[in-house]
TrEMBL record:
Residues of the full protein shown: 152 to 519 of 519
Official protein name in the record: Glutamine--fructose-6-phosphate aminotransferase [isomerizing]
E.C. code: 2.6.1.16
GO MF entries: carbohydrate derivative binding; glutamine-fructose-6-phosphate transaminase (isomerizing) activity
Keywords for the protein's UniProt record, in alphabetical order: Aminotransferase, Glutamine amidotransferase, Repeat, Transferase
């Protein structure tokens, strides 16, 4: 049942090309327009939305952070992302023109469920992004986008996360289509990039052995840092969460620009720092990331850089280099998280931990 893998988690990591492809299936009609089957929110209702609040926990929250970059960029609608457990207790400003997006793989997370109940009592519309048909969160929402990851058995979410990202991109493009904020060709172009993702993820997975040996090299580390910027920042947070959960290692993700505001004090000789390097674009993200990497390296860090194919400027500053396919910055999380999942899975395996059942954790958290 694990298809020859030692862990369900590893099997699920390798299922990601299929899971992403399935989550993209049947989303466009014959004319190429996006259609979301269980959207159940009329175009007029969506056009009236003037604020989106994404609520989720854990890994799903990090998918929400990526979604913020995509939705704001493609739709120009303001987006907040909030931990479900904090949302209700801050007296959030919501009304009938607020769209709440609840992201939950299981559909049963108590904090998220309570948060949407609160939002609906304030007349907000709720859309769920969920992997479990008929679970509580989609049942109590106005609309739903189902991800098609298939059952996720490993406690640590992997294919759940990737398919949540896909659903978030689809939602962003759908809102852009309804609001008319983007022209058809651009939506088409992004959809084509998304449709190429299963192949790109396959490419990353074909490099798994190199990532495994890196993980084994770092098995005696006491602490590991992760750096990212822009859409790579949530990837850094998610990479760190995977390592905490599975390897019981101290791991922290930072926005690279925050380094000098404190975290750089943590850097000492030999500290592994995994760096998610943004694609080279017209903005200054790439250059700024590079200078962050130089700063930690100058203080003795061992830099493990995830950078796109053909980016040679990173080579002088990378002690180790993991290559990523060339994709747009907003979509990079879909490929960049994969080596970090493999890294955590392998490191935990080397340490002799039960990867599918990490200590103290449950697959679905039904208490607040
Ligand atoms: C981490 C992980 C958890 C879940 C979180 C939310 O690997 O799986 O952080 O993401 O408990 O669960 P769902 O998405 O089911 O609401």
């Amino acid at each position: 049942e694990k298809d020859g893998h030692d862990w369900f988690m590893r099997k699920e990591i390798f299922e990601q090309p299929r899971a992403v492809a399935d989550s993209l299936l049947g989303r466009r009609d014959a004319s190429g327009r996006l259609q979301l089957d269980e959207m159940r929110l009329a175009d007029e209702e969506l056009r009236d939305i003037d604020k989106i609040i994404i609520i989720a926990c854990g890994t799903s929250f990090y998918a929400g952070m990526v979604a913020k970059y995509a939705i704001e960029h493609w739709t120009r609608t303001p987006v907040e992302v909030e931990l479900a457990s904090e949302f209700r207790y801050r007296d959030p400003i919501i009304d009938a023109t607020t769209l709440i997006v609840a992201i939950s793989q299981s559909g049963e997370t108590a904090d998220t469920l309570q948060a949407i109940r609160h939002a609906r009592s304030q007349r907000a519309k709720v859309l769920a992004i969920c992997n479990t048909n008929g679970s509580s969160i989609p049942r109590e929402s106005d609309a739903v986008i189902y991800t098609h990851a298939g059952p996720e058995i490993g406690v640590a979410s992997t294919k759940g996360f990737l398919t949540q990202l896909v659903a978030c991109y689809l939602l962003a493009l759908y809102i852009a289509q309804v609001k008319g904020t983007r022209f058809g060709d651009e939506i088409d172009e992004i959809m084509e990039h998304l449709e190429a993702m299963p192949g790109h993820i396959e490419t990353v997975l074909s490099g798994a052995d190199a990532v495994y040996s890196l993980a084994a090299d770092h098995a005696s580390s006491r602490s590991v840092l992760f750096l990212g910027r822009h859409a790579g920042y949530p990837v850094a947070l998610e990479g760190a969460l995977k390592l905490k959960e599975l390897a019981y290692l101290h791991a922290e993700g930072f926005a690279a620009g925050e380094l000098k505001h404190g975290p750089i004090a943590l850097v000492e000789d030999g500290l592994p720092v995994l760096c998610v390097v943004p694609p080279k674009g017209r903005d200054q993200l790439h250059g700024k990331m590079l200078s962050g990497i130089q700063e930690v390296r100058a203080r003795g860090a061992r830099t493990i850089c995830l950078a796109e194919e053909g980016d040679t400027s990173i080579e002088p500053y990378a002690d180790e280099l993991i290559r990523l396919p060339k994709v747009p910055v907003l979509l990079q999380p879909l490929v960049a998280i994969v080596p970090l999942q493999l890294f955590a899975c392998e490191l935990a395996t080397v340490l002799g931990h039960d990867v599918d059942q990490p200590r103290n954790l449950a697959k679905s958290v039904t208490v607040e």
